């Protein structure tokens, strides 16, 4: 993506507030880079496929925002990022989101009865109990896969993500996520300290107390939750508010985001077709179909035995 020098957008006419976009930026003189994301209609599309209670919809909105922040960093256009939180003794036992080529999808599996019994707004600890956060990067060109797994710790999903970067990546990072009262507008920022120097030199990005990192971290921490999901505040204006005193801020081209589920009749049929005829026969329901549900989009795909050339 082409980079451009940053100017004062507060002095320009108002522009679109970047709903369903990820905007990258860099602070070259501070050895830092980051992403800003704001989601809107995309969340409507994802959440409309499920009748999630408000606390579950909110945590999924946060998770999708975090997935967009991480996925937009992929250099390989065909790469995929998958984020999964799996837990024990929590109201939520599984949360899965993934990103590929600007497409996001996600779902949550949870205990409805335990959620109804929870008093007030559930905390991250009460929602997830004891668990872990796994983030997987799949590179399409090199076919390489990298996965980092850390305990699901902290007061928020943003805290857990910061812990992931600190423990798994050893990159000082700041993550902030925010969702408005409706749960259908969300925003987030990811800021990281970059490695300095060539291979073999000191890896300055492992120093959490590096003065350049301290400077930009303190600036970024002034961001308010309502600024992240404010539809009237373009993301470039928000960047100016945070870093207008810096010598240079480079803004990268925005990445459009949309809901995307890769399920289809053909895909489901091909997967079922990998089973033997006897196994397929055992899957048939009383109506004569093999019915496959997609957890992400809540669609049901009824497959007939005749689709495989099997006797009905």
In brief:
The protein has 312 residues and is α+β, with helices and mostly antiparallel strands. The protein has helices at 41-47, 54-71, 112-117, 124-128, 157-169, 211-220, 225-229, 235-243, 265-273, 277-283; strands at residues 3-5, 21-27, 32-39, 80-88, 92-100, 103-110, 130-138, 145-151, 173-179, 186-193, 250-252, 255-256, 258-259, 289-293, 300-304.
How many domains, as an integer? Answer: 2
Low-confidence stretches: 1-15, 197-206
**Computed Rg:** 22 Å
- Count of DSSP strands: 15
The percentage helix is 25-40%
Strand content: 25-35%
What would you call the structural class? Answer: alpha+beta
Named CATH architecture of the largest domain: 3-Layer(bab) Sandwich
Structure description:
The protein is of the alpha+beta class and 312 residues long. The chain has two domains: 18-259, Hsp33 domain (3-Layer(bab) Sandwich); 265-308, no CATH class. The protein has ten helices and 15 strands. The strands form three sheets. Strands 1, 2, 3, 9, 10, 11 and 12 form a seven-stranded antiparallel beta sheet that branches. A six-stranded mixed beta sheet has the order 8-7-4-5-6-13. Strands 14-15 form a two-stranded antiparallel sheet. The chain starts with a strand and ends in an 8-residue tail after the last strand. Residues 1-15 and 197-206 have low confidence and may be disordered.
């Amino acid at each position: 993506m082409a980079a451009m020098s940053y100017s004062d957008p507060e002095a320009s006419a108002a522009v679109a507030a970047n709903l369903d976009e990820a905007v990258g930026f860099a602070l070259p003189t501070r050895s830092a880079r980051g992403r800003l994301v704001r989601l809107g209609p995309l969340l409507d599309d994802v959440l409309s496929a499920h009748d999630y209670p408000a606390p579950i919809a909110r945590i999924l909105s946060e998770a999708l925002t975090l997935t967009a922040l991480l996925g937009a960093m992929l250099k390989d256009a065909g790469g995929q990022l998958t984020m999964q939180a799996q837990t024990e003794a929590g109201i939520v036992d599984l949360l899965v989101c993934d990103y590929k080529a600007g497409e996001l999808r996600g779902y949550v599996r949870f205990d409805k009865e335990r959620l109804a019994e929870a008093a007030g707004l559930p905390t991250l600890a009460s929602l997830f109990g004891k668990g872990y956060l796994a983030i997987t990067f799949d590179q399409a060109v090199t076919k390489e896969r990298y996965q980092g797994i850390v305990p699901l710790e902290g007061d928020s999903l943003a805290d857990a993500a910061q812990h992931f970067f600190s423990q798994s990546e050893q990159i000082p990072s700041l993550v902030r996520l925010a969702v408005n009262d409706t749960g259908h507008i969300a925003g987030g920022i990811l800021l990281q300290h970059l490695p300095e120097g060539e291979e073999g030199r000191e890896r300055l990005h492992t120093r959490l107390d590096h003065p350049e990192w301290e400077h930009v971290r303190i600036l970024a921490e002034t961001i308010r939750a309502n600024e992240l999901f404010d539809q009237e505040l373009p993301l470039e204006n928000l960047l100016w508010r945070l870093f207008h005193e810096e010598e240079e801020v480079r803004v990268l081209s925005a990445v459009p985001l949309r809901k995307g589920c890769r399920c289809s009749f053909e895909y489901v049929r091909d997967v079922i077709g990998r089973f033997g005829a006897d196994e397929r026969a055992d899957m048939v329901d009383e109506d004569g179909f093999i019915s496959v549900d997609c957890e992400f989009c809540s669609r049901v795909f009824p497959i007939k035995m005749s689709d495989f050339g099997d006797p009905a």
